[in-house]
Design goal:
Elements (H helix, E strand, L loop, with lengths): L5 E14 L2 E14 L3 E5 L6 H8 L7 E6 L2 E2 L5 H11 E5 L10 H10 L5 H14 L15 H13 L5 E5 L7 H16 L4 E5 L11 E6 L2 E6 H29 L1
Helix pairs in contact: 3-4, 3-5, 4-5, 5-6
């Protein structure tokens, strides 16, 4: 469970795009707060605006209106250099698909972002090796990520995100291409980062099984965001699973009728 201090605040954020002659609004007047050292999950159907919201929160996409504040700093009032430094030092980001420098081994790939923060080669290697140890991948330090399994690559990606000791871990569908065993390992790393290292975690996922792990849920659908706090999450997930079972039952009944 996180602390009682607000660490991220979104106020009146909306996003609009022109698609031909049509105006599309994937985010509509969103207001929410995320607490320090909390585990937050953003979920919703495909095309609901999850990626747009994540891009806004991480400084990649300025909203059409509204403000985003991280730890007291309004993100979109930062200069380009300040924003780049903020992203490099405060955010550790993991995506569903990873991009590696193929000629570099795991510890070298994990080291690369640290060079941009001014680390010496020796210090960057030491920090990267420790990050690999944190995710149980120390024995793979000299192996090339592109030759490893999807689960192994994703744990190395987690090490890369954790190496700079960021305040925020942003994970965009990190288990989307993994089986349940490897997906659970990634979730364990995220939970450890939050509970033991006091990171604030923001996870985007389609996997409803992970919702009970959160302190705070942001459900997004048709551009509207609904917040659910820890005490309401079990009730919400039970309702989601009931709806899912009902849909499957209706599909099964329809197939039987056709047969």
């Amino acid at each position: 469970m996180g602390s009682s201090r607000v660490i991220i605040k979104a106020t009146g954020i909306s996003q609009q795009f022109n698609v031909g002659e049509e105006i599309v609004t994937p985010i509509k007047e969103a207001n929410f707060e995320l607490m320090e050292s909390s585990f937050n999950i953003i979920y919703g159907p495909s095309g609901s605006g999850k990626s747009t919201l994540l891009n806004i929160l991480t400084g990649l996409q300025k909203p059409s209106s509204g403000t985003v504040t991280f730890d007291g700093h309004e993100v979109y009032k930062l200069s380009p250099d300040e924003l780049a430094f903020f992203r490099a030092t405060r955010l550790g980001i993991v995506y569903q698909n990873n991009y590696w420098i193929k000629s570099l081994n795991a510890v070298e790939n994990v080291s690369i972002p640290l060079y941009f923060l001014g680390y010496s080669r020796q210090r960057a290697t030491e920090v990267a090796a420790y990050a690999l140890e944190q995710v149980g991948m120390q024995d793979y330090a000299k192996k090339y990520p592109v030759l490893l399994s999807g689960g192994e690559q994703q744990r190395i990606a987690m090490a890369r995100a954790l190496a700079s000791s960021p305040l925020f871990i942003i994970a965009d569908e990190p288990t989307g291409s993994l089986d349940s065993t490897n997906g659970d390992k990634i979730m364990e790393i995220l939970r450890t980062a939050q509970q033991e290292n006091r990171r604030t975690v923001i996870l985007v996922t389609h996997n409803m099984e992970y919702l009970p792990l959160a302190d705070h849920l942001l459900h997004i659908e048709d551009g509207r965001i609904q917040e659910l706090q820890h005490d309401s999450i079990t009730q919400a997930t039970n309702a989601l699973f009931d709806q899912m079972r009902q849909r499957i039952d209706r599909l099964s009944a329809a197939r039987k009728d056709k047969a």
